[in-house]
Design brief:
Elements: E1 9-13, H1 18-29, E2 33-38, H2 41-48, E3 55-58, H3 64-78, E4 83-86, H4 104-132, E5 135-140, H5 153-173, E6 178-185, E7 188-189, H6 191-198, H7 208-212, E8 221-222, H8 223-234, E9 245-248
Length: 260
């Protein structure tokens, strides 16, 4: 997919790997100058090394100070910020348990990164966009924020919050020219999902067929397929799309796929 992002500056959080890296790379390939932001600064440096005109940035999204100073550094270097992709997020590998057994510290870790972190980065990234009178914010949610799954109470709560925060932000910022949308991926093939499902030693490898039975396409998605949607939402071609949550799930949430 090709669009024109020439002259645009994009900040992508969680860009050191997986979906975030795929989105950042797609933006670079379409002319944007991209800030690869991640708490894992060393890896962000490595993956951004050959992205001409781009930079790596160490950012812990749960830190208001780092969110604020990160945006300041971007403005110092580029003088503007046009696109924010709030991709940084975590889930739990260890605690796939009912809500009555879910540890508070794990709840707080997930909600702080997936929801509060998104709010903090958006708060500071929106300011220069509003001054410019134009910008795009794209929040990476999850189908779990639309159709909650069992044994993921914190993740479901955080991503459900992302869905409604996206819509609230769209209502608030669009009158000043800043469009806000979200993407809700289904099961995407990444290093994280390999640890859970798709790798030979994945914790729930024996349940892959059962899970994919809910997906009409019968396979996991790729990070590049999510990146193509983020590319569209950043481009001029989506100029009348605002407050939308785009599902990228192979049809998982469309309805019952199996007989029952």
């Amino acid at each position: 997919m090709q669009v024109n992002l020439s002259g645009k500056v994009a900040l992508v959080t969680g860009a050191a790997r997986g979906i975030g890296q795929a989105i950042a790379d797609a933006y670079v390939a379409n002319g944007a100058q991209v800030v690869y932001a991640d708490i894992d600064f060393a890896t962000a440096q490595q993956v951004s090394e050959y992205a001409e005109g781009s930079m790596a940035l160490r950012m812990d999204v749960t830190s208001e100070a780092e969110a604020m100073s990160g945006v300041e550094r971007i403005l110092e270097r580029y003088g503007r910020l046009d696109i924010l992709v709030n991709n940084a997020g975590v889930n739990t590998l260890k605690y796939r348990v009912n809500v009555d057994e879910f540890p508070l510290e794990e709840w707080e870790r997930i909600v702080n990164v997936d929801l509060t972190g998104l709010f903090l980065v958006s708060k500071y990234a929106a300011k220069p966009m509003l001054r410019q009178g134009a910008g795009r914010i794209i929040n990476i949610a999850s189908i779990v924020g639309l159709v909650p799954l069992r044994l993921q109470s914190a993740f479901a709560a955080a991503k459900g919050g992302v869905v409604n925060l996206t819509k609230a932000m769209a209502l608030e910022l669009a009158p000043q020219g800043v469009l806000v949308n979200g993407i809700a991926p289904g099961s995407i093939l990444t290093e994280g999902t390999k640890q859970l499902f798709y790798g030979e030693g994945g914790k729930f490898n024996d349940r892959v067929a059962q899970m994919l039975a809910h997906v009409p396409l019968g396979r996991p998605g790729t990070a590049q397929e999510v990146a193509s949607c983020a590319l569209f939402l950043a481009a001029d071609e989506s100029s009348y799309v605002n407050g939308h949550i785009l599902t990228v799930d192979g049809g998982w949430t469309a309805g019952y796929h199996r007989d029952f």
